[in-house]
């Protein structure tokens, strides 16, 4: 029988290829190193999808235009009566009649900004209630790791490693034609390492395009210059206000944040945004059971029975 070529071995039995085993290790250790970071970015990213909606739900943007609108001195006096315990330092009237007035109040060292209805003459609440401040904190955590430009640069490196994780994952996932169906579905839910491994494989392949999208757009958002230079290079008409790649960049960024397709897509993105965290947890469970636990059990088993040691078991765990 003729020896199989490298391509044929990849199609039929990729587990036997040395470079594939190397990629398994790259994928494994990249995932373990990024683990907690991925969980934080995954959860904060899911929450951040709802940022504009939280502001809309909890901060009134309009008021009912009914009756006379207070302005000038009459408005100032009404504001002082409404907030008798504070000194009114500013009253900002908006040009649009249906937008609430913004009031700045002072009491000792405390400064408060609140919204005021000039028709109903009543307080509408804080300009930035605690839930919106919490949302801004989560968004800053996701975008900049709470450390400004330094955090944004760290996120860029994390995005590049996440991209490496996605690309090695798609190669490592391929089980060979004979076991293809085995890696497409997780099977019946169960509290076991086997189910965790199959869930890891099936989620990774079915959502690979979305994971790749998140990784590439995250790199762009942190390191936009190489992308902008490429678009500029491809733009042959310098008089054109719209570069040929701008629409694609806008589309990919909107897809990254789940924008522009209504609440159904946003809620889907909230759920799907947790997938990287799930992939880390399921991958860590698989690694712990198939490598760490076997390594701790192998010396005693091998010494008693004269069987294979740690290296053989670890190799078997990586290839199975």
Question: How would you describe this protein?
Answer:
- The chain has 13 helices and 4 strands.
- By secondary structure, the protein is an alpha+beta fold.
- Strands 1-2-3-4 form a 4-stranded antiparallel beta sheet, with helices on one face.
- Strand 3 and strand 4 form a beta hairpin.
- Helix 12 packs antiparallel against helix 13.
- It is elongated.
- It starts with 5 loop residues before the first helix and ends with a helix.
- Mean pLDDT is 88; it is low at 305-320.
Summarize the structure.
The protein has helices at 6-12, 18-48, 51-58, 72-82, 130-144, 148-173, 193-206, 208-222, 225-234, 246-257, 262-272, 275-305, 310-319; strands at residues 87-92, 101-107, 110-117, 122-126. The chain is α+β, with helices and mostly antiparallel strands and 320 residues long.
Short descriptors:
320 residues; alpha+beta; 8% strand; disordered C terminus
Secondary structure elements and pairings:
Layout: H1 6-12, H2 18-48, H3 51-58, H4 72-82, E1 87-92, E2 101-107, E3 110-117, E4 122-126, H5 130-144, H6 148-173, H7 193-206, H8 208-222, H9 225-234, H10 246-257, H11 262-272, H12 275-305, H13 310-319
Antiparallel strand pairs: 1-2, 2-3, 3-4
Helix pairs in contact: 2-5, 2-6, 2-11, 2-12, 3-5, 6-8, 7-12, 8-10, 12-13
């Amino acid at each position: 029988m003729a020896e199989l070529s490298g391509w044929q071995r990849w199609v039929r039995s990729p587990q036997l290829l040395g470079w594939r085993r190397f990629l398994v290790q790259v994928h494994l250790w990249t995932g373990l190193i990024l683990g907690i970071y991925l969980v934080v970015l995954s959860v904060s990213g899911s929450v951040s999808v709802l940022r504009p909606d939280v502001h809309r739900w909890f901060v009134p943007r309009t008021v009912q235009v009914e009756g006379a609108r207070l302005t000038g001195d009459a408005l100032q006096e009404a504001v002082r009566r409404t907030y008798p315990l504070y000194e009114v330092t500013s009253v900002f009237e908006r040009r649009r009649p249906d937008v609430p007035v913004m009031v700045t109040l002072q009491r000792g060292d405390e400064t408060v900004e609140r919204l005021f209805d000039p028709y109903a003459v009543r307080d509408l609440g804080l300009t930035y209630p605690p839930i919106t401040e919490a949302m801004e904190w989560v968004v800053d955590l996701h975008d900049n790791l709470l450390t400004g430009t330094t955090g944004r640069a760290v996120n860029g490196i994390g995005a590049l490693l996440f991209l490496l994780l996605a690309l090695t994952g798609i190669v490592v996932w391929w089980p060979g034609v004979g076991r293809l169906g085995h890696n497409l579905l997780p099977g019946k839910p169960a509290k076991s390492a086997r189910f965790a491994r199959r869930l890891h494989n099936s989620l990774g392949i079915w959502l690979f395009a979305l994971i790749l999208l998140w990784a590439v757009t995250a790199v762009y958002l942190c390191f936009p210059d190489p992308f902008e230079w490429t678009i500029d290079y491809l733009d042959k008409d310098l008089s054109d206000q719209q570069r040929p790649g701008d629409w694609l960049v806008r589309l990919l960024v909107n897809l990254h944040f789940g924008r522009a397709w209504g609440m159904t897509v946003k809620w889907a993105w909230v759920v799907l945004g947790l997938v990287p965290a799930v992939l880390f947890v399921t991958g860590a469970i698989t690694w712990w059971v198939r490598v760490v636990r076997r390594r701790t059990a192998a010396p005693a088993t091998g010494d008693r029975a004269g069987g294979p040691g740690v290296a053989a078991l670890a190799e078997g765990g990586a290839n199975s």
